[in-house]
Amino acid sequence: MPMFHAERCDFCGRCLEFCPYVNYDLERAQTEMRDLVAGGTPPIVGACVTCASCNMVCPTQANPFDLLNERQEASGALGIPEQAFKNFAGLSGLPSVVKQGDPGKPVMNICIVGDMVRDLLENPLFEGLTIVEGADYFCTVGYIHLGKPSPVAKEAQRFIDNLAALNSKEVVCFHDDCYTLLTSLAPEFGLKVPFHPVHIFEYLYRELLKRKDQLKKVALRVAYQAPCASRYTPGKDYYLDRIFELLGVERPLRKFERINALCCGAPLMARDRDRAAVVKGWNIKDAKDAGAQAMVFLCPMCFLNLRKVARDEGLEPVFVTELCRRALA
């Protein structure tokens, strides 16, 4: 499992004080962190949104979220309905598909989100790629949002082996969760990845650079909705910034972005729809207040969860791959 490093934790409380979903002062944050490390189940375990941002802000890199997630599984404190677990487990029964592309071109894994993104694959930037999806290529990282991280560790080697069997030097990860597993969680599990995982941002940027002289400007002011999995791999956002520069897209400063980015609210939907609506409202209001015209998405679940409320508030929801396609002459 991802690892909490107890020897690094000095109980500074910064992680829980930072959390935007609970209003903890430093004293309470420190108290609950001490209780958590001592083996208790303080209120934060059940109040957690599972966004993992506390790992990002921990000054000693102790990975407090990993301990929270472990305690959620042991205690059931999140109160996730059993049907939600059954629905997610059912994804492991999806048929596996390999759509063979051109020799020498990379593989792109779309995990189990194929039905959510099928139309988005009709994009010249993906021409010639071998595209794989289904149970064999399912990373299972979503279990983290259900407060049940153990299946992720259990299934990681299978996931890696199935991708390695495709004999591609590079595997492009359409789904941010897959990239997180291959580049962040796998090393924590002590697993080696015998191919080069490429984030979809990096792939898109490379393909756009090849067409740099033929690109049309996309004159939009956008807010970007980062998936929670991106908390594990923030470095790849370099490529998103370069993509926006190439396209002429403006990203006005706003409160809830980068290290302060909010969860889309989807992990809350199964257990507290009212709280999910509040979080969505914060996000959309912040984007509008910053002057954004559109909200750009990387995660299919974020897109499905926020697209209606974004449209209702006058923000165009647009997937990052579609934004890139618009720039093609």
Detailed description of the structure:
- Helix 8 (150-164) crosses helix 9 (176-189).
- The strands form two sheets. This protein has a five-stranded mixed beta sheet with strand order 1-3-2-4-5.
- The chain has three domains: 6-75, no CATH class; 87-199, Rossmann fold (3-Layer(aba) Sandwich), CATH 3.40.50; 205-326, Rossmann fold.
- The relative contact order is 0.12.
- The radius of gyration is 20 Å and the shape is globular.
- The chain has helices at 14-18, 26-37, 44-47, 53-57, 64-75, 82-89, 114-117, 150-164, 176-189, 200-210, 237-247, 273-289, 300-312, 320-326, and strands at residues 97-99, 107-109, 130-133, 170-173, 196-199, 222-225, 294-297, 316-319.
- Strand 4 (170-173), helix 9 and strand 5 (196-199) form a beta-alpha-beta unit.
- It has 329 residues and is α/β, with parallel strands linked by helices.
- The mean pLDDT is 97.
- The chain is built from 14 helices and eight strands.
Named CATH architecture of the largest domain: 3-Layer(aba) Sandwich
Q: What's the average pLDDT? A: 97
Q: List the domain count as a whole number.
A: 3
Rg on CA atoms, Å: 20 Å
How many β-strand runs?
8
Ends: how far apart?
46 Å
**Spatial shape:** globular
Number of helical segments? 14
Approximate helicity band? 40-55%
Strand order of the largest sheet: 1-3-2-4-5
- What is the CATH top level name of the largest domain? Alpha Beta
| Poorly predicted sequence stretches spanning 5 or more consecutive residues | none
Q: Give the strand content.
A: 5-15%
